[in-house]
Amino acid sequence: MIIEKLTESGDFTLAVSADSTREITSVYCCDLLSIVMGRAKADCAWVTVMGGINSVAVAVLTEAACVVLAENVPLDGAAKERAQQQGVTVLRTALPVFEAAARISAEITAASEIK
User: Fold this and answer.
1) CA 41 to CA 31: how far, in whole Å?
2) pLDDT value of position 39
3) How far apart (Å, rounded) are the C-alpha atoms in residues 16 and 94?
């Protein structure tokens, strides 16, 4: 599923748009950055409540397809600027972390059934 399809659902909005055609292949949830660095898979949608500059760095390091900020957590100014510079797509949602991840997972499954 591509990022653009996720934003069409209405539950996710773009905070930083880098490549909306990038493929999301899995979902990863964690707020402990050192764990994310070692376990998140490339092309995942990383769901977190960490809206700081270090989250952008971790997204670059792990090659995440996008960062999804749950529970309406804001992306701070420095993080937004860095995400734009580094080409990291950041989405926001009012959904809690688990519900956001479940929704993304369902979208990935539905998209794979269409193929």
Assistant:
1) 15
2) 97
3) 16
* β-bridge mates for residue 68, sequence order: 47, 91
- pLDDT over threshold 90, residue 115: no
What are the Cα distances from residue 2, in Å, to 34, 43, 77? 27, 10, 26
pTM exceeds 0.90, yes or no: yes
Tokens representing residue 5 in the block: 């399809």
Q: Which two tokens stand for residue 67?
A: 């960062």
Domain segments of the chain: what residues?
A: 3-114
Assigned CATH for 3-114: 3.40.1390.20
- The helices-and-strands tally (H runs, E runs) of the chain is 5, 5
The C-alpha atoms of residue 102 and residue 88 are separated, in whole angstroms, by 22
User: CA neighbours within 13 Å on the CB side: how many for 102?
Assistant: 5
